[in-house]
Amino acid sequence: DAGVIQSPRHEVTEMGQEVTLRCKPISGHNSLFWYRQTMMRGLELLIYFNNNVPIDDSGMPEDRFSAKMPNASFSTLKIQPSEPRDSAVYFCASKATGGGGYTFGSGTRLTVV
Amino acid sequence: SQQGEEDPQALSIQEGENATMNCSYKTSINNLQWYRQNSGRGLVHLILIRSNEREKHSGRLRVTLDTSKKSSSLLITASRAADTASYFCATDEGGSEKLVFGKGTKLTVNP
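The joint structure predicted for all components is written out below.
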């Protein structure tokens, strides 16, 4: 398995633009998580899905952020409109049902100028 | 919210020495996990210890868990330059699926 695949690896965009981050979890993993990592706040959970259903989105900072999981093999995190404070590394991770650790993707480094 | 807090924030040692990192957390847990992150990369799962376990080994890694003190430690024995990375502890909040991560310990192993 190629692991959790995220795209793009790097994204530079202007303030006000829409940004879409993509994630392909490991086949067979039932849970998918979106995290944001910054120096100041560390790793923050934004939202997670179980069997494609959003379970907890309490970490989504505001209405500008939205996430979808239309099927078991694909998820998106969208920021519209983007702001400079959204600059961070965004990670997607997946996990099989039951115990065990997460498998993380390589992340998307987002810079909003 | 930050559940786990690692200590120290940074650690620099010589190759061959042992490295010990500590983690404290606040609420009840079902398990505690340790992850490694190399610079510019995603996190890699190292080891999971359940709340009814006190110690676990995996290769050069040794993890302990003290639920009465809400603390855990990660010991890396005979460290190598390739162990240079940030190490994070993560806990499930009351047994939920989601993990809450600490801010990590940055380990530097000098050759």
